[in-house]
Amino acid sequence: MKEFIFTILDFLAQLGYLGIALGLMIEIIPSEIVLGYGGYMISQGHLNYFGAIIAGTIGGTLAQVFLYWAGYYGGRPFLEKYGKYVLIKKKHIDVAELWFRRYGAGVIFTARFIPVVRHAISIPAGIAKMPISKFILYTVAAIVPWTVLFLYLGEVLGSNWAHIKEYAQPYVMPLIIAAVVIGAIYFLIQKTRKTTE
């Protein structure tokens, strides 16, 4: 498996910024690994940090837009049938739908930092016909700090970038907590607005 990952990463590295964007779009390899390797490429002088952030943000956002469209046009039956090909199981869709119904559109931002529903949350947004502009806004707002963090860690780790998951743990938890707090504040504001209308 490691050999397969390194083969894919080597191929993506040859594509430069496009490789980062494609790696995040197709999601064969977890985004942390793709971005960590991107950070390593920055440390080697092959990529520019800000260019890599832009590529990572575009690739990560497009991946979620595809899932949004799948939900919008295909609905749940389509995703239950074909979701396995993009590593999304029925239970992921169940949890994502529950969260979306309970917490509303703001969960699009918060869920990006939660492993189980990170990608699946785009599906109920599409099924619910959430405005695409709002969906993209919340998605980009979450993807930028995630991209910045893992590119930075990959750059700092240099040739040890493959250990990024272990190294990132102390940084990821505060990010998750901050996202949950922001999501809770958003939910309370929305609930207060509804009761005062």
Structure description:
This protein has 197 residues and is mainly α. It has one domain (2-196). It has nine helices and no strands. It has helices at 2-14, 17-26, 31-43, 49-82, 90-103, 107-110, 122-127, 132-157, 164-196. α1 crosses α2 (17-26), α3 (31-43) packs antiparallel against α4 and α3 (31-43) crosses α8. The longest helix has 34 residues, at 49-82. It is globular and about 55 Å long. The mean pLDDT is 80. This is DedA family protein. Belongs to the DedA family. InterPro entries: DedA_domain, VTT_dom.
Lay out the secondary structure.
Layout: H1 2-14, H2 17-26, H3 31-43, H4 49-82, H5 90-103, H6 107-110, H7 122-127, H8 132-157, H9 164-196
Helix pairs in contact: 1-2, 2-4, 3-4, 3-8, 4-8, 8-9
Please, what is the average pLDDT? 80
Integer count of domains: 1
Main sheet overview: none
Helix content: over 70%
Shape: globular
Low-confidence stretches: none
Strand content: under 5%
What is the string of helix and strand elements?
Answer: HHHHHHHHH
Instruction: Write down how many β-strands occur, each being a DSSP E stretch of 2 or more residues.
Output: 0
Number of helices: 9
CA-atom Rg in angstroms: 17 Å
Structural class: mainly alpha
| N→C terminal distance | 55 Å
